[in-house]
Write a structure and sequence with these properties.
The chain is an alpha/beta fold. It has three domains: 133 residues, Rossmann fold, CATH 3.40.50.720; 142 residues, Rossmann fold (3-Layer(aba) Sandwich), CATH 3.40.50; 190 residues, Succinyl-CoA synthetase domains (Rossmann fold), CATH 3.40.50.261. The chain is built from 17 helices and 20 strands. The strands form four sheets. It has a seven-stranded mixed beta sheet, with helices on both faces. Strands 15, 16, 17, 18, 19 and 20 form a six-stranded parallel beta sheet that branches. Strands 2-1-5-6-7 form a five-stranded parallel beta sheet, with helices on one face. Strand 15, helix 11 and strand 16 form a beta-alpha-beta unit. The two termini are 21 Å apart. The relative contact order is 0.08.
């Protein structure tokens, strides 16, 4: 059974111990972020004996003066005061605590001594403690943004534990621009009481979570970690970004959170054994997250490639073999559909070269024939989304029409192109649901992050390079094979 962390991620009320009106203090901007995120003001209780009011909320001199016993306490006071405050929390009946305060084991002997004292109090009093040295917590659905950076995340099914608060907060910031939705986030900090695997365990049983991300710098109890990840991965994908791959990186991790990075080769093998999907970079983690969240898993390594032009098909083909994938054989039905819709000089094989065909219905008909084929496990579609933009702009420029169009007419032109792509993607999503096969889109004509996010609409995956599509499909297939072995 996972530990019950509901009062940490779903608190009905919060005591902010160390709340402040001074802008540079954590007790100030963390409270501002909490209120700005939409958490109910009437359920937030700032604690500061020197203030009567903090950010328009009434301040209380101590926990004992509160009208209720809050579900959660968040502490931002200096490290030396934390053990005593934890005792007060326990005496007042608060069992769940987030310690934002730093200057513990990450800074030296005195900090390590204080952290041991924190651990002793938490064990003795039965406290569930996040941190210390944490960036905070998020529950997007419940408008809980108790975190040291301003966030307005899209609610979703992804939950994320990060041993680095800054890495976690920055990655959450990226997702705001990429349309990736989140359920929960926690910066685990120095993990004096709750470890990264405790959050993974909780997310594994959380009905609001469908996919789990973890940024790790080190693991103390490897056996327990693997047991939890192995159990969780059978129900939900667990995507891990593990830093400290190099000796220098390992030393940096130790000085950052006090984590022992360990051998990267051992971690790599352990993740494979446990069914965790390892991300190579921070952006790779987000690419994997949106792909696992939005696409069905491939059942095999036979890939169909459909491309607007031959060269990109060659690049996609080159990307498959290093990823452990290969080109599928086109069955008779796919060949007949292509023969009926494309000029006689089409490629007559996989990749299917559309030889510049611009008609959406043609693209969709060939895409469906490939999705329907029993010889194809997944599809990479290159260039279909850029077709209308490229051809449309060429027509306007060649006829000198673009200079004569009004601003409204030009805007209408691009709206029409977007509508075309939206209709195309709607058809492709239907194929994925009907035939249960992933289709990854590669947009070779750069159309900007905002346009890609709007087209994805949280339901498809669009990348800007065929190599990325191949890597994503390979990792999804690895996970599918893990599930098959364990079934």
């Amino acid at each position: 059974m996972a530990k019950d962390l509901d009062k940490i991620f779903k608190p009905e009320s919060i005591a902010m111990i160390g709340a402040s009106n001074k802008p540079a203090k954590w007790g100030s901007f963390l409270l501002i972020n909490l209120l700005a995120g939409g958490y109910p003001r009437e359920n937030v209780y700032p604690i500061n004996p020197r203030e009567k009011e903090i950010h328009t909320l009434p301040a209380y001199p101590s926990l004992q003066k509160l009208p209720v016993v809050p579900d959660l306490a968040i502490i931002t006071t200096p490290a030396s005061s934390v053990p005593g405050i934890l005792e007060e929390c326990a005496q007042f009946g608060i069992k769940d605590v987030v310690v934002i305060s730093s200057n513990f084991s990450e800074v030296g002997d005195e900090g390590a001594r204080l952290e041991r004292e924190v651990i002793e109090v938490a064990k003795k009093r039965g406290l569930q403690l996040v941190g210390p040295n944490t960036m905070g917590i998020v529950n997007a659905e419940r408008r809980l943004f108790a975190i040291g950076a301003p966030m307005q995340l899209h609610p979703g099914k992804i939950s994320f534990v990060s041993q680095s608060g800054n890495v976690g907060a920055n990655m959450l910031g990226w997702t705001m621009n990429q349309g990736i939705g989140f359920a929960k986030f926690v910066g685990s900090g120095n993990e004096a009481a709750l470890q990264a695997e405790d959050y993974i365990d909780y997310f594994g049983e959380d009905p609001e979570t469908g996919l789990i991300l973890a940024y790790l710098e080190g693991v103390d109890d490897g056996r327990r970690f693997l047991e939890i990840v192995s159990r969780t991965a059978l129900e939900k994908p667990v995507i891990v970004l593990k830093s400290g791959r190099t000796e220098a990186g390992g030393k940096a991790a130790m000085s950052h959170t006090g984590s022992l990075a360990g051998s990267d080769e051992i971690y790599d093998a352990a993740f494979r054994q446990a069914g965790a999907i390892r991300a190579d970079t921070s952006q790779d983690m987000l690419d994997l997250a949106k792909s696992f969240e939005r696409l069905p898993l491939p059942c095999g390594n036979r890939i169909g490639v459909v491309t607007l032009g031959g060269g990109w098909g060659v690049l996609a083909t080159d990307a498959l073999a290093p990823a452990g994938l290969h080109l599928a054989v086109l069955d008779q039905n796919v060949m007949e559909v292509c023969d009926g819709l494309l000029p006689p000089f089409w490629s007559h094989g996989n990749p299917v070269d559309l030889v510049g065909n611009i008609y959406m219905d043609t693209h969709l008909a060939i895409l469906e024939a490939m999705a329907k084929s029993s010889e194809i496990d997944a599809i990479i579609a290159l260039g279909s989304l850029g077709t209308g933009t490229i051809i449309g702009l060429n027509v306007l420029v060649s006829h000198h029409l673009i200079m004569e169009m009004s601003e409204d007419a030009l805007k209408g032109f691009f709206v029409e192109l977007k509508d075309r792509n939206t209709r195309f993607l709607s058809g492709a999503k239907k194929f994925m649901r009907t035939y249960n096969k992933p289709i990854i889109f590669v947009e070779m004509q750069f159309i900007g992050d905002d346009s890609l996010r709007d087209l994805e609409a949280g339901e498809v995956a669009i990348f800007t390079a065929p190599e990325k599509a191949a890597v994503i499909l390979a990792k999804m297939l690895d996970y599918k094979r893990y599930l098959d072995r364990k079934s």
